Amino acid sequence: MRYWIAVGAAWVVATVLSWTPLSTAIDDSAYDWMSRLYTVSRPAPQALIVAIDETTLQQQGGMRSLRTVLAKVLDALAAAPPVVAIDFTLADAGDPAEDALLAAAMARIPHLVLATDIAQDGSGWQDPQPAFARTAEALGHVHADPDPVSRRIPLEKAVGRTRRWAMAFEAAYPQWAKTLRESTDAIELSTSNGPLVVPGTRESGRAVAVRFSETTRIVSASQLLNQPGTALPSGVQAVFIGTTAMTAARDRLMTPLGRMLTGVEIHAQLFETLREGRFRVETSPALVLLAGLSLMVLVGFAFQQRGWRAYLMGLPIIVFAHAIPHIEFQQDRIFPTFGPILTAWLVGVTAATFQYFGQRRQLVRAQSEKARYQEAIHWVTHEMRTPLTAIQGSSELMTRYKLPEEKQRQIADMINAESKRLAQMIQTFLNVERLSGGEMQLKREPVSMTRLVDNCVGRARSLAERKQQRLIAETASGTASGDGELLEFALYNLVTNAIKYSPEGTEVRVTLEARDGELAVSVRDQGMGISASDIKKLGTKFFRTDQAEKSGIAGTGIGLSIVREIITRHGGHLEVTSALGEGSCFTMVVPASVTEGVER
Prior knowledge:
single chain, 600 residues, 25 strands, 19% strand
């Protein structure tokens, strides 16, 4: 469950990031790159561009003579094409003679589309002069709306209640040959070639993604004027007349082809796209979301495998995520690039990282269990040696020598007592192990700390007498809540350690006192003492002080770590004060109990 929560979180992050401006910029750059990679080929373009280029302007007197040049170009078209579109707004009044000449030339064109533009203040349309507009079959807007690359062109623009269609749209499907039916996400045309659906939402102004091609037909206006009667190339369905001269064309825009085109060239490219009837359609957000979810599931299942199988299954899925936009683009479907790729990689990295640390946790757990097992063996060796030695020595005495009946009974009683003690130690050991491993809940019973101190001092008194030490107990009344056997084990360990590391003839004092809501049992000795640096390390498994190692006294460094574990599990703590050569004081502090009940 944790694995799939992590994988799902990675998918959510990738999905949110795919809605950011950064994602949009990356998707647009990928679209431009694929437009160049999968170039549209048009062996026989249907649009012809008559370019008012540098040569034409030089020969015909520059932009001052533009209307005269346009009139000559229209007259020079030997065979009138189905549609002529002029990419000049012609909104201002010019020389009356020139305007009359141009209007007469326009009147001789059967199907003429003139350009219109939105006023700079947005107040309305800048339509051509009435003399020109009367000759036109349609007025088309010339807005490309680059952002900053001209990838899409809106088919419609509106100012107030007046709507204009794009000039290329009017040229591709003349008004006399089409009827429109509009929906929220497309328009349907009835053309001479049958019905045609042009995708484009109303919110975007019916924007159409232009299928740009390197193949275009361009002829210089100077060529038509210098060679009257020049025949148009076969298959031409529309002629676009516009400026391409660097000094005159103000509408040079960047395109997905990686280079700038003039406005008239972009209009011709849109015309070709419309006439082909092939449109690049945006993939719906729901489908993109579903694709990301599918990638998340596939990558997640792949990296649930172990070892090389995870990468063998996961990497092809990530590669496929990179290929999806390419496959879709070649089918004229625009699929986001950033989202699927980020989803595949982020989910893959998250899943692989989770599995790595999961396996590492298992390894650490296995190593920890092994270490605990080894510690247990050391503890058994350390703690159970004494009763086993007593049992072994007593049994040898009984078998080697013929002892009096009373002595045999004493030895038998001692063997029985030590056997019970050994069984109790084994049970205590198992409880500590299960408690450390989280496999057992701590007992919560009233424990008389007074009785516990008396028991531990009584058991250890014989050890103190062997070293001619004075073992003194100073107790007060107090009750704690917990496991009496474990607490007794912890205190007994502290007392026997004090005896073991103290020289003969010294004193070991055990004191029980009540603090604010706590009970503190202190074991103070007059032994070798502990340095300040070693005090910080006490309780670490297998750690022994330098003084203990040099003394030659046997020990494993296990007992004190178990003592600290027991006290901590009871919600208490172990305090240590010491100085070299002045003895030590170990204080076991546990919460006092207010629970009424029978004390153990």
